[in-house]
Amino acid sequence: MKYNKKAMTKLINQHRELHDELKKIKVEMGLEKNLAIKTLFHSMVADNGPYMKEYQELERMQ
Length: 62
Fold this sequence. Notes:
Elements: H1 5-14, H2 16-29, H3 33-44, H4 52-61
């Protein structure tokens, strides 16, 4: 599965828990927003993550 910033951003905007996790990653790891979004993608979407199906649907719609 490929990373798609547009789909990932939309997914984050739809789920408050992902938004909160993004903020946490930025602070704890000291990452800029784009790298934090990629980190969130790999931990919550890729490799059968809990948000994988929703992400794939968003990707298809684009």
